[in-house]
Amino acid sequence: MATETIRLLVAEDHVLVRQGLQWLISREPGYTWVGEAGDGDTALALTRSLRPDVLLLDLGLPRLDGLAVMQALQAEGLATRVLVVTARQDTRSVRDALALGAHGYLLKTEDTAHLLKALATVAQGGYWVSPELAAGLDREPRDAHEGLTERELEIAACVGRGMSSRQIGQHFEISAHTVRKHRENIARKLGLRNAAELVAWAIRHGL
InterPro entries attached here (predicted)? Predict the structure, then answer.
């Protein structure tokens, strides 16, 4: 039986960058390149029609920017996971992207090793934020943690590092179901809507 591959779509307005990403990733096993787009409208249309597993998305797209593309994907409930690959380093862009459902945020200044690690993490169901950005995001006072148990803080930290519920369960020797219940309690206590916002919260608090 053929090994299942991760189907990729890239949305990037610079042809050279698109070709570079394709060349780098095509050398790695387990990935299939299904299409590319040079603007946001085309990216949205291709995501709807091709249903890729992962969309590599630049934020600075013409006609429809990357945040608007993610907003549309979120509204339609499409299952495609999004890895943002961008030059934007401002905290607002990172938080907005995660809140709109991005599963990863990678800077174009990162090296190939980080690109492949981010892609693998997102493709496998985890979350990734460039270490440079994670270190630089604003920290909020420690009292913002009040209301969470020690175990909930530990699990939030694991989520912020991109670990799945199964991986967290293995780490703490508890079931994935128990981890999901902890995550639901964390989200309820903090008023968060989704896993991406929990990732953003964990990063902001230095977890």
Answer: CheY-like_superfamily, NreC/VraR/RcsB-like_REC, Sig_transdc_resp-reg_C-effctor, Sig_transdc_resp-reg_receiver, Tscrpt_reg_LuxR_C, WalR-like
55: which strand partners? Answer: 9, 82
Question: What residue ranges define each of the domains in the chain, with the CATH number in brackets?
Answer: 6-136 (3.40.50.2300), 142-204 (1.10.10.10)
Could you read off the pLDDT of 108-157 as tens digits, one per residue? 988 899 899 899 989 988 788 887 776 555 444 445 566 888 888 888 88
- Strands (E) across the chain are located at 6-11, 31-37, 54-57, 81-86, 104-107, 128-129
Sheet containing strand 128-129, strands side by side: 31-37, 6-11, 54-57, 81-86, 104-107, 128-129
Q: Give CA–CA dist 97/71, Å, rounded.
A: 9
Q: How far apart are CA 127 and CA 67, in angstroms?
A: 17
pLDDT digits (tens, 9 = 90+) for 164-192: 788 889 999 999 899 989 988 888 888 87
